[in-house]
């Protein structure tokens, strides 16, 4: 099982962290440059229970041990490692921190959704950005991808957003145009190189994830349901979409009784999904790649 490369830390409020702890917190990030770092305060901890665990929300508001409850909840929801703010790291993770998993880890992308901690949405609907970043390094095989590249992209967005907002909490014009740019990149790549090219890349991503999660069968080029569901989450597919893809009935000797789908059948479904998405754009008048000019209304 692949553990999402995320480090979680928590304190009552980010503005009142004791000065003695601040260097230790920074060191966790320095020693693990390829890991996503997520800081949670009491407000964030309560939000954990609003949607994923609504039955526990009232309890979370009433108890004094909110941080303890949240620690279990966030690891269950997002995965990764939780490190106490009072604990100083003495060395890195021991894996070289070069992100040896050189592919886009769907579980990590899915875990970032809905946290409210990123300035732009991160999902495969922004496949144009991911596809271009992947192709920028010609030494990589299709589907290989360093999560650190995506972190860099998001951090650059965050820095630009902060510079634009100048301390205000109001989403800026930069944020709106950045999200529009990401979606437009997907459309431009799909129309310029063809939907099948993008679909083929996604199948490489799925195959790499399946191998890491022991959810790939090379003999039938099939993927298991758990891995497919990760793709559904990051593409925002409707619930039950996997059931629309024919099962690989010849994979019947699996003792775990796992359900499998051939990647060829998955590719056909995703190809139709993306083609339909582009067709919807065409219906509202988006038909050719062009520079977008944003004009202020008077």
UniProtKB/TrEMBL annotation:
PANTHER family: MANNOSYL PHOSPHORYLINOSITOL CERAMIDE SYNTHASE, NUCLEOTIDE-DIPHOSPHO-SUGAR TRANSFERASE. Keywords: Transferase. It comes from the Eukaryota. GO terms for molecular function: mannosyltransferase activity. Signal peptide: none annotated. GO terms for biological process: mannosyl-inositol phosphorylceramide biosynthetic process. The keyword Oxidoreductase does not apply. The lineage of its organism: Eukaryota, Sar, Stramenopiles, Oomycota, Saprolegniomycetes. This is Uncharacterized protein. One of its GO terms (cellular component) is membrane. The keyword Transferase applies. InterPro entries: Glycosyltransferase_domain, GlycoTrfase_DXD_sugar-bd_CS, Nucleotide-diphossugar_trans.
């Amino acid at each position: 099982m692949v553990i999402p490369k995320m480090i979680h830390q928590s304190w009552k409020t980010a503005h009142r962290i004791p000065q003695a702890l601040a260097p230790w917190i920074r060191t966790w990030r320095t020693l693990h440059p390829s890991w996503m770092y997520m800081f949670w305060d009491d407000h964030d901890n309560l939000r954990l229970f609003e949607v994923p665990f609504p039955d526990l929300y009232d309890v979370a508001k009433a108890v004094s041990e909110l941080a303890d409850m949240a620690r279990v909840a966030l690891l269950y929801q997002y995965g990764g490692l939780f490190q106490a703010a009072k604990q100083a790291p003495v060395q890195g993770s021991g894996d070289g921190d070069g992100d040896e998993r050189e592919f886009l880890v769907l579980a990590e992308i899915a875990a970032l959704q809905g946290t409210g901690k990123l300035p732009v949405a991160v999902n495969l609907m922004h496949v144009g950005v991911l596809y271009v970043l992947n192709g920028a390094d010609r030494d990589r095989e299709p589907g290989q991808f360093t999560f650190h590249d995506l972190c860099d992209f998001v951090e650059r967005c965050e820095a630009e957003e902060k510079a634009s907002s100048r301390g205000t909490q109001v989403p800026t014009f930069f944020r709106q145009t950045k999200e529009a740019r990401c979606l437009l990149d997907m459309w431009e790549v799909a129309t310029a190189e063809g939907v099948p090219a993008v679909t083929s890349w996604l199948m490489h991503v799925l195959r790499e994830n399946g191998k890491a999660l022991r959810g790939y069968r090379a003999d039938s080029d099939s993927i298991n349901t758990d891995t497919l569901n990760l793709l559904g989450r990051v593409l925002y597919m409707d619930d039950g979409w996997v059931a629309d893809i024919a099962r690989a009935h010849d994979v019947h000797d699996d003792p775990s009784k796992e359900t499998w789908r051939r990647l060829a059948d998955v590719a056909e479904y995703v190809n139709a999904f993306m083609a339909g998405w582009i067709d919807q754009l065409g219906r509202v008048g988006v038909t050719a790649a062009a520079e977008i000019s944003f004009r202020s209304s008077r």
